[in-house]
Structures are given as structure tokens and as C-alpha cells.
Amino acid sequence: MKFTSDPDPLRYPIGQHDLTVEPDAEQVQHNIVSIAALPLKLIELVQDWSDEQLDTPYRPGGWTVRQLVHHIADSHINAYQRTKLTLTESNPTIKPYDEGAWAELPDSTLPIVPSLHLLTALHQRWVTILHSLSAEDLQRTYYHPGMHQSFTLATMTGLYSWHGEHHFQHAYRLAERNAWL
Questions:
Q1: What pLDDT, in 10s, does the model give residues 44-91?
Q2: Domain presence at residue 13
Q3: Does the UniProt entry include the keyword Metal-binding (predicted)?
């Protein structure tokens, strides 16, 4: 997985993901392991945080940790659906969504437990599919109309491995800065 550096480490704590790099078979397996590990890693970090901690933005102008947890669930539900569409259709056009608007909907104020449970169950199903993919399956594509290009499932594993770690690091580094660890 390749990341580009970013001058704003609060916004991109591990850098930005480079979608132009197609991962090899070894990297895809690493990405899947990373995706599989995210729910437990996130639970261990935030499960005992107070409402005050969960309602703290991870950076000035950023989402709260509560919104972040709900966002990861929203995003990974979409990724799971895109995976299944890609495996059952020929280069399907996926539906982009307004992440910022979703993060403002009323369910973003709920306790995080439902989203943590959802992530755990979702990742169990998603990772089962990802582990079963052949080299040919990993080359299947979906079309992203907002980006005007197609992406392979192999590339998608890199994106979502990065996405999970990116947001985990938002919460983790906030906890470090505030001595919550």
C-alpha cells in the first residue's frame, strides 16, 4: 500500500492513499488482514470512552469521534455492497454518497455500540468474501462516476485497509494528544 505525504497530519495522519498503485497478491492479503482487524482494534480503543471524549472532534473543524465511528460503519457498508456488486455484475456503476451529509444525520448522535457491533458483523461477512477471491476475481472492476474511472477489487482492498487505519489513527492520535491512553 502506498501513501502520499500530506502537509496536514491532523487531517491525514498516515498520508493520503495512492489509488494509482495496484497491489500485488501479497499486499492484497495484507490489506484483507488489516480490514479484518479493524473492528476489534477500534473497539479496544474507544469502547470505554465517555460521551465527552466521543463528542470531541479529532481535529479543528473535523468530525467527532462518535461521528467517525458511525462514518466507518457507513463507509464499509457501502464497500461491502460494492464488493458484492462487482462480483455479480460486469463493471457496475456504484452510487457515491455525500459522507459529510451522512455524518450530520440523526443516527450520528447515537451511542457507538450499534456501529461497533455492525462493523464486527459486517467485517466478518466482508472478509469471508475477500479471502475467497481468486486472482481473476481481484481484477474485476466497478466504475466510480464521481472519479470517472474503474477500480479493481484488489485496489479496493488497499483503499479500505487505508481508510480504516486512517480513521483509527484520527481517534488514536487524539487520545495521545489528550493523554486518554
A1: 999 999 999 999 999 999 999 999 999 999 999 999 999 999 999 999
A2: no
A3: yes
Burial class (CB in 10 A: 0-12, 13-18, 19+), 124: exposed
- Please state, in angstroms and rounded to a whole number, the distance separating the CA atoms of residues 18 and 5: 10
Distance CA 174, CA 162 (A): 18
Confidence band for 8, pLDDT divided at 50, 70 and 90 = confident
Query: How does DSSP classify residue 14?
Result: T
In the chain, the amino acid numbered 133 is L
Contact 159, 82 (CB under 8 A): no
Residue at 8 is within a domain: no
CA distance 90 to 147: 18
The CATH number linked to 133 is 1.20.120.450
Query: Which helix (H) or strand (E) element contains residue 142?
Result: strand 141-144
CA dihedral 97, 101, 105, 110 (to 10 degrees): 90
Q: Please state, in angstroms and rounded to a whole number, the distance separating the CA atoms of residues 9 and 6.
A: 6
Residue at 122 is within a domain: yes
91: left (phi over 0), alpha (psi -120 to 50) or beta: left
3-class DSSP assignment, residue 103: coil
Query: Tell me, what amino acid is at 115?
Result: S
